[in-house]
Amino acid sequence: MVNHRLWLRPKLPASVNVPTIKRAPTLLLQLLIFTFLLFLAPWIRLRIYDPVIAVEIKLSPIPDCVTWNRTGICPKIHPASSPAKERSGSSCPDYFRWIDEDLRHWRKTGITERTVAGARRTAHSRLTILGGKMYVENFKEAFQSLALFTLWGFAQLMRRYGGKLPDLELMFDCNDRPVVKAEKYAAEGAVPPPLFKYCADNSTFDIVFPYWSFWGWAEVNIKPWSNFLKETKEGMEMLKWEDRAPYAFWKGNPKVSRQRHLLFKCNPTRLNDWNARIYALDWEQEAQRGLNQSNLAKQCTHRYKIYAEGQGWSVSKKYILACNSPTLLIWSRWHDFFTRSLVPQRHHWPVRDSQMCKSIKFAVEWGNNHTTKAKEIGEAGSHFAREALRMENVYDYMFHLLSEYAKLFKYKPKIPSNAIELCSEALACNTDGKWKEFMEESMEKFPSDSPPCTLPPLFDLGPFAQAKMEAVDEVEAWEDEYWRKKDNVH
Q1: Is the residue at 79 inside a domain?
Q2: Over 436-468, what HEC string results?
Q3: What's the pLDDT tens digit per position in 454-463?
Q4: Whole domain around residue 46: which residue ranges?
């Protein structure tokens, strides 16, 4: 069974040294050293330069539960300093530009201890980073393992960039919808509480952050993101886009939103075929059957995939984009941390929610008659999911958001009295089954020996938003003309 509570003892971790071995003066000595290192292969990584051989201590590739269960001590996993290496093509993806937008509400006033405490009302956890260590204070349990894998993501960030993260504290809310209403704080002239969430909309000030499923969603057997992409790529290569069913596909839980409920009206009837194939998925029943019919990596079988939001945004968006089929994106109120950089007609095809079935039918007809362009849209969306959203960039987004957030602090954080030190062992050693399996799969093996990507320069979001709106307007004009001609024929 999964233990969602962290039974930890906050103790100081042991230190890790990073030795360097000089080039051996003789060939024989070099061979002896190399042979010795081979026996240590599971615990070190060897990188050969000229004129030195550098040996860097490797983190345990899996949680060291033997030591943890004996000592309860979080290991020291990051050297105090490490050489910075330039990364080729080091500019961050465009969606990093929204970090500044999400933090602008505190630019003038800064963030005070009282401001952070104001976000406590709905938060599930408080995260504190102090002196290169991370601590967590849990307030309440979240749905399924959302909080658990969110904390796991933070723990992996620490394994990757722990020595580089600034001191800070934050409140995290794992529920679906944002809660910091812009209207309330504008009317009162008050500073909004900085609350970290998975999604927001244009009427809220919640700070969007990468969500738990990047490290896996054990309850529904969705693998960690990197492994999912590998499995999906294999499936796509087996079935070319031209050979896929020439319809739009969606499968999921229809009970969580009105938009999804209406989507089911787009299934074929005796009178109309809207070019959509919509399937209901009862996750509880599916779990009882072994989750054999819900493998997202095996759902790249149709030329078009539909995205419909749930109670808030839906984690399904990145999985749908990755399929290499054009994503028919029904108008969405909510955005996550990367959504705002998706461009209509480039990364996806916009679908009206007001006349959903007609809009889907037109999109499929258009794509089947403009296959070159349709394939380009599918490939661009898939490239975005695979490159802009690769885990290296997800961690860099987390790093930059937290770093920019910490710059706004007007006080020195301290460790809450009820907090416990957070590390991978503290989480994984209290779990088993799929939960532990996914943690081991998504565990960061090494501290990063290169700096995070460089934040792109700020730009005026107004013209960008206008260009996106014009792309949607153009599609809707095509769609209106299509139905005007079709109705005149009948």
Answers
A1: no
A2: HHHHHHHCCCCCCCCCCCECCCCCCHHHHHHHH
A3: 999 988 888 9
A4: 20-63
